[in-house]
Automatic annotation (TrEMBL):
One of its GO terms (molecular function) is DNA binding. InterPro entries: Bact_HTH_transcr_reg, Chorismate_lyase_/UTRA_dom_sf, TreR, Tscrpt_reg_HTH_GntR, UTRA, WH-like_DNA-bd_sf, WH_DNA-bd_sf. It comes from the Bacteria. GO terms for biological process: negative regulation of DNA-templated transcription. It holds the Pfam family GntR. This is Trehalose operon repressor. Residues 2-70 form the HTH gntR-type domain. CDD domains: WHTH_GntR (cd07377). Keywords: DNA-binding, Transcription, Transcription regulation.
Length: 240
C-alpha cells in the first residue's frame, strides 16, 4: 500500500512530466502543498525528498524547490533508486533486455578490479541493457550475493530486481557506497552501448540491506553523451 508521501510525490512527478510545472519553475511551497494535499509538513517533506532523489527537483534554501531540466535524463547518485522506478518517475518509456543470467561460484572477471574482497563469493550474475527511445543507454551488470539472495528468476530481473527483493522476499534495501569514474571499456560494451569511442561513465556500488548485510555488487556503464548525474549536497560544519 502506498503511503501518503508516495502519492504526493507521484502526483507532483506527473505534473512535471506533463509540464504543469516547467523546468526552471518553483513548485508550490511546503506550506502550500500541506494545504493542497491536506497533510502534515513532515509528509510533504518526505515526498519532496523522493523527488530530489529522482533528480526531478532541487531544493534551494530560502527559495523553495526548483524543477530541474529533464531534456537529458537525470540519474540520482546519492540515493538508491531502481531503473524501473526511474522509468516510471521520468516517463522514459524504456525497455530492459537481459543479456546475461547465470549462477556463479565466484565473482566474474569484470567485477574483480572493483570488488577484490568479494572475489570468492557465490552469487547470480545478471547483465541488463537499458534501451531508451530505441537507443541503448545503460548496461547494468549486477552480482547478487548468495547468501543472502539464494534464488531469483530471469523474469524478475526483466521487471525489477528491487521490487522482487522488497515485495516478494520482504527484504529492506537501505544504503549503498558508490564510486563514479570515467573508464575505458572493452569492444563488447562499446558495441552494446553504441559508443563512438572506448570511454564510458562507470558507477560501481556495493548495496546493503537495513541490517547492514551486503547483498549486491553493481557495475553500471552509462553513455556519457546521453546522461547527467545530479546530487544535492549541503555543507556541514563539524567541530572536532
Amino acid at each position: 500500500m502506498e503511503s501518503k508521501s508516495d502519492i504526493i510525490a507521484q502526483d507532483i512527478a506527473n505534473k512535471i512530466k506533463h509540464e504543469l510545472y516547467h523546468s526552471g519553475d518553483y513548485i508550490p511551497s511546503e506550506k502550500q502543498l500541506t494545504t493542497l494535499y491536506g497533510t502534515s509538513r513532515e509528509t510533504v517533506r518526505r515526498a519532496l525528498d523522493q523527488l530530489t532523489e529522482l533528480g526531478l527537483i532541487q531544493k534551494i534554501k530560502g527559495k523553495g524547490s526548483l524543477v530541474l531540466d529533464l531534456d537529458r535524463y537525470t540519474f540520482p547518485i546519492s540515493g538508491i533508486t531502481s531503473f524501473a522506478e526511474l522509468n516510471h518517475g521520468l516517463n522514459m518509456k524504456a525497455q530492459t533486455k537481459v543479456i546475461t543470467f547465470e549462477k556463479c561460484s565466484h565473482l566474474p572477471e569484470k567485477f574483480l578490479p572493483y570488488f577484490k574482497e568479494e572475489a570468492d563469493s557465490c552469487g547470480t550474475h545478471i547483465e541488463r541493457l537499458r534501451i531508451i527511445q530505441d537507443e541503448p543507454d545503460v548496461l547494468d551488470c549486477d552480482y547478487l550475493l548468495d547468501p543472502p539472495i539464494t534464488d531469483i528468476s530471469k523474469s524478475a530481473a526483466e521487471k525489477s530486481i528491487y521490487q522482487y527483493l522488497e515485495q516478494e522476499l520482504g527484504l529492506s534495501i537501505s544504503y549503498a557506497t558508490k564510486e563514479i569514474t570515467v573508464t575505458k571499456v572493452d569492444n563488447d560494451i562499446q558495441k552494446l552501448l553504441n559508443l563512438d569511442n572506448e570511454m564510458a561513465v562507470l558507477v560501481a556500488s556495493r548495496n546493503y540491506l537495513e541490517d547492514t548485510t551486503k547483498f549486491e555488487l553493481t557495475l553500471s556503464y552509462h553513455r556519457p553523451d546521453r546522461f547527467k548525474f545530479v546530487d544535492f549536497a549541503r555543507r556541514k560544519h563539524i567541530k572536532l
